[in-house]
What we know:
59% of the residues lie in helices and 12% in strands.
Amino acid sequence: MPSTRDIRRRIKSVKNTAQITKAMQMVASAKMRKAQQAALSGRPYANLMNEVLAAATAGAGDFSHPLMERREVRKRAVILISTDKGLCGGLNTNLLREAGRLDKDTTVYVCAGRKGAQWVSRLKRDLAAEFQYKDIPAFSEARAISKFAQELFTSGKVDAVDVLFTQFVSTLVQKPELRPLLPIHRIVKLDAGVTGHGAVEELVANRSSEYLFEPGAASVLGSMLPHYVNYQVFQFLQESKASEQSARMVAMKNATDNAKQLIKDLTLEYNKLRQANITKELLEITSAAMAMG
Length: 293
């Protein structure tokens, strides 16, 4: 049975832990608001760009581009967007569980984030490159990742490129998603704010504006496709960072609440033990007095 001194030490230790998790919760909360705002503010631009590209695709006729080349998939590259740090609940666990379902013999990984790169190295899978990105991702960081993936695809080293990231749904809900990136063959309006692919006809039929392209739809499409891929990756990074900060804030809040509850339980146990010791001492004093007569 622990002594009162041991319980006091445990209470002090848990209080110190609660102070740390509370501070981390406040920091994550501030970063979460910025990350969510960045992810949400990029969605209207991505929607409009996808709509214009869909219209250009419909009007380009028999247009061809290296990024649109379709071939049999023998080797696939996956851009794995994870976090650099832990303490964000099951975010990385769920993401890496999805990554583990991919065929390791035909998959090459391009990792954005330290946790994903560590997972790939630990399981001895094929790691082509590792990139880092900030709490508020910069477009230059996304462009570097996208350019590397495009070079893999156009050189013929891989036949397709996908992106595995964590989709931001809400502060309490984030889910891993595997989305195709290359080759580009279908463009749709974003669904729930996340870049995706689908039938071109749906988007073109539903668009509210008519576009006139100068010098022509094919020329505009050829110039915009690399930027389209770059912005796809940029939006995925923003979605992943918003998910990370949201998950970390929730995890730290739960840790703080659990620490407070543990302090209450330990305090109750301490008071019970102290009261039992006091009662025991009183009984000893009373027994000694009665024995002396």
